[in-house]
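Worked Example 4.2. Consider the chain below.
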Amino acid sequence: MQYFDLGTIFFLVAAVIIFWQLRNVLGRRTGHERPPKDPFTIERKQAGQPQGAQRQGPRGGSDGDNVISLPRPADAKAGDFKTIDAIAKPGTPLNDGLRSVRAADAAFDPGKFLDGAKMAYEMIVAAFADGDRKTLKNLLSRDVYDGFSAAIGERETRGEKVQSSFVGVEKAEIVSAEMKGADAHLTVRIVSQLISATVDRSGTVIDGDPETVAEVKDVWTFARDTRSRDPNWKLVATEAED
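Applying the procedure from the previous section yields the following structure tokens:
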């Protein structure tokens, strides 16, 4: 006959109680739960893609999951400039540029574009600090990606690491817009707060400050082929503002 001491019985009872509580709190999976929604993508039906299709980049390659995708309202009209006039005074070069983008893409909304640009900015800054080339490749043009990848490679060769914490975007505004052929180019001025420090192989800080929040000002340009059903924008140029 097998015997159990009081300690064993106590732990068995406790395990049953914990399991029962977790069951009540978390519930049961029925197989009909909705999957988590990726804020960077839209439904494939909206984008004109069949279910199960992969998003294709401008060069025909698969872009994976990290993309800058903006909602495309079905009721948008090329001649409706209310959302544009709300952020850029009519008659100004910026307003004219935004109107040219709307004329090429009736679904373009500058407010929604800015929301996507801010999310992309945070994602790109974090990926660069982490040396995450896969994420960067899906968000950057080929030329910009090559520059970022080279900088990461030099950092890795020296054995350096970036310790970074993104605080948030203080301000983001479109400063210019233009059509280059069928490609829409929007330049955004972004002011953010970031904690960042670079450390060497021994962990010694050689640049930045791991405890100080710094204000960072960048001017980034995003582009998209308006003829494509692919709603993704990619970073095509960067500039640091003094």
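Confidence is low (pLDDT under 50) at residues 18-65, 70-76. The CA atoms of residues 24 and 108 lie 46 Å apart. Compare this with Example 4.1 before moving on.
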